[in-house]
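Work package 3, deliverable 3.1, input record:
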Amino acid sequence: MGLTVGFSPPPSLPRPSQALPLSPFTVLSLRRRPPSQALPLSPSFSFLKLPPFNDAARRRSASPLAAQPSTAVCSSSQPSLAATVFSACAHFSLPVRQFQTSSTTTPPPPPPATATTADSYTEVMVGLSLGEQHFIQGGIAQDIRCDGRKRLAYRPIYVETGVIPQANGSARIRMGNTDVIASVKAELGKPSLLQPDKGKVSIYIDCSSIAEPAFEGRGGDELAAELSIALQRCLLGGKSGAGAAIDLSSLVVVDGKICWDLYIDGLVVSSDGNLLDALGAAIKAALSNTGIPRVHVAAGASTDEKPEVDVSDEEFLQFDTSAVPVIITLTKVGKHYIVDATSEEESQMSSAVSISVNRQRHICGITKRGGAGLDPSIILDMVSVAQHVSEQLLNKLDAEIASAEAEDEDES
Amino acid sequence: MEYVSPEGLRLDGRRPLEMRQIRAEIGAVSKANGSAIFEMGNTKVIAAVYGPREVQNRGQQMSDRALVRCEYSMANFSTGDRMRKPKGDRRSTEISLVIRQTMEACILTHLMPRSQIDIYVQVLQADGGTRSACINAATLALADAGIPMRDLVTSCSAGYLNSTPLLDLNYVEDSAGGPDVTVGILPKLDKVTLLQMDSKLSIDILENVMQLAIEGCKAVANYIREILLENTKNLEYRRGV
């Protein structure tokens, strides 16, 4: 066993022969630079010419999900993003074809993202120049993002299980440069008086300072608390435990006396956006990896105040994790929303909605964050999109977890 | 309790002068300027280095050398019993300080005036010798970040139980209450930069135990050098040179 973190080549040094297919940003460094340097006329910039400028209709028909059904509702107050992008292009005398808005002659209005309120996600500042901001927003508007993904595409997901031998179950998930570890520890405890027939589950997230220097000291606590609460809401259901991903009554050993307390700990090792989805996936993987020791209660002792128990070293109970939902965060940038935003994209968001969906396509929890208001019809639309995306994500995640488990068993 | 069996084997089956298996890996945190994972047996730590960069707190800026900072933290799941730690308890503050001083001694800080280097170490699993593992991981991360150093610093611990000097104590041996000598050396310059011991030990035995720990440090240094060499070859290959 042991953490086999395969050597991941630093992305900054691709071999020339296998240059990364993505990202104009491998060239366009994301450091803060004066806007005049931000978009050098390097070959990578020809990227902007690639997407078809004119046939929005074709795009809409090609990906019905990505089409924004109610653009008029939400965007009327916002300046046209596309306009800002193209006027940025005009600097470099790129062909601006078939452009129908009237704002090309006016100077570009300030990007909407600067109006985003200070919620803790945006506190993790990404220094972006105006040109880079336009580039990200324009890419999203055209359904081709900085790393070449479509709006509703996830980054590749890598799953490893059993990375923490001391825990009852653990998993490490990597999505692009986001890297999180989740561990599950089970301890025998006493059920609460209000719910004597249920075990207890708690989720704690720790934002390590190795992920972001801003998390040093108590710096990560706010984000950690936000993530913990969002995960509790999405995975543990309400106070009654209804809609919980884990069947709490299966954690009871002796009614009202002994139960398992599950401590789910998440650790953010590297953060590049979309932490909530990654942590949700890691917890799901860790739970599938978890074995709870079988407990034998001494016969006839159930009337005692503290029954004697014998914790087995050999027999373990596995969780049925098919009911554990996945969390899909839809991040709204400009008129459109995207899944699996990187931290650069998150810095441009106006609001984000996290929806947890299970196998039955039931909604298990919703969290909205970010300052800008959303039209209710858009939220409903986001929910249906999330339901659709969840199916692909669940299938992919389940396949990855299964292969990680198989690998883990081979090793041990 | 018997920590060394009559056959001369320790609780985990090692011989007294044997180290646990060590494994290191460079580049675990893609966002950091340099990062590394270091494992000694079941002890596993990640170190990440950010910098040299602008000093965040202007008051701490030094005009003649770089500011080196370090933070040590333990994950909730790193210990056998789950701990609910307040971040920045006294133990972590002390270890942060030890790591900072040890690393500062080998970084050529005068080459980077008015800048700041942050070293963050996170313990994923604690099984004794976290201090040494953290220093070794930090060395690798600093080297990965390309920060100029006098030499690598490597560290290893040794103890003395059942009248036997033992190399690289694990958690059970560490908590036995015997002396625990942690040594950090600059292997090329052959200088000791870190020396800590709790409990008491007679002078001539201390000499033996310390010598043992230094041998351990040298073994770690050889391994780290190999890893760095391999990493550099990898980079060279990927650059197509």
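Residues 203-239 of chain B form the longest helix (37 residues).
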